[in-house]
Amino acid sequence: MIINHKLAELEKMGQSIRVGLIGAGQMGRGMISQIAAMNGMNVVATADIRTEEAIKAYQNAGIDNNNIIVTEELEAAERAIENGDVVVTPHFPLVLALSSVDVIVDATGIPNLGAEIAWKSILAKKHIVMLNVETDVTVGPLLHNMAKAANVVYTGAAGDEPAAIMELYHFAQSVGFEVLVAGKGKNNPLNLHANPDTARKQAELENMNPKVLASFQDGTKTMIEMTAVANATGFLPDIPGMHGPESTVKQLTEILRLKEEGGILNRYHVVEYINGIAPGVFVIVTSDQPEVHRELKYLKMGSGPNYVLYRPYHLTSLETPISVAKAYLAHEESIVPYHGLVAETVAIAKKDLQPGDSLDGLGGFTAYGQIMTATEAKESNALPIGLTDSSLVMTKPVKQGEPITFDAVEQTKDLTIWQLRNLMER
């Protein structure tokens, strides 16, 4: 499917894919401006508790103030969209209820909120595109199955690293290569003790939320992203936390090969991250066909027997419209947990935790995420990082560097993501 041709056809017929966006932070703002430059697609409604951020996002995209309608009423919102205006609201359920919205995009990055948005989108029979990998690695298999039953699409977003990796993975498999390793570069040195305070100065310089930046620095985000790839491919982490070596693109096949071949891996068909090639993503492939090896050498792909397919960029929310179009036009996903839950990102104590301490979620002061196989996570009763937030209170001490277990925490509030997780496990 040539997406730009299909969108141009919609535009020519006076039609468009009508997008409802939840979250007008950095990702949401970029997406609104990108879609404003496209044919056949419009962000007709945006929800954010900070309505001023959503208004600013539309203004930055060239929308006149007179055409931005702030409302909490369904009828007024429907009428505004029918008149060609865009809607801003502090209440995301309003966006889900709009008959004039075809596809929902979750750009919140909050696991529990993402779970509620996805679940209610599916119940409303709307396609849902997740710029929220945190939710996907926690309850994605259930949401994927629910969406299939409802005949709508649940998908991760193009432009996020997991979907960018899957583009290479699907291409490689389609032309007959065997994929041995799937991975990504990490933007910053791993600092397991990063927290909002240590990240604050850099976050201010980069106009980021300090907690979000800390979740990148402490490795949690990388672990979550590679868990999504594991669940989409069936590949596993070679060791808990992966190896995370330093490498250039040219060195990848030398480092990411089996130990008996001079590399660091115990096995192939693994997910991995690399320091030194960010913001790129890659797969390492091979073939059992001698003629294919001769052709790859002729094409300057290396001496073999393994070769790197490398993409040096990913454009985050600027590529998300691709997933919106694929869902609406072709009923296709960009990335989903095709293999169910084969890997898990679990919560590891960032400091000694005592009974009565509250957890504070991704990028906080209390825990970081570590990828491991789902079997290892289950055997150790480890708590998924996506379930951690301030509603969880410690009931047992856990030492720094040890997994936080289900029996060491108590819920003070019944969250949607916990309900869905329990349903998925049953």
UniProtKB/TrEMBL annotation:
InterPro entries reported in the protein's UniProt record: DRL_cat (IPR048423), NAD(P)-bd_dom_sf (IPR036291), P5C_Rdtase_cat_N (IPR028939)
CDD domains xrefs: SAF_DH_OX_like
Pfam families, per the entry: DRL_cat, F420_oxidored
Pyrroline-5-carboxylate reductase catalytic N-terminal domain location: 18-88
Domain Oxidoreductase DRL-like catalytic per the UniProt entry, residue ranges: 159-320
Protein name per UniProt: Predicted homoserine dehydrogenase, contains C-terminal SAF domain
Organism: Seinonella peptonophila
Classification lineage: Bacteria, Bacillati, Bacillota, Bacilli, Bacillales
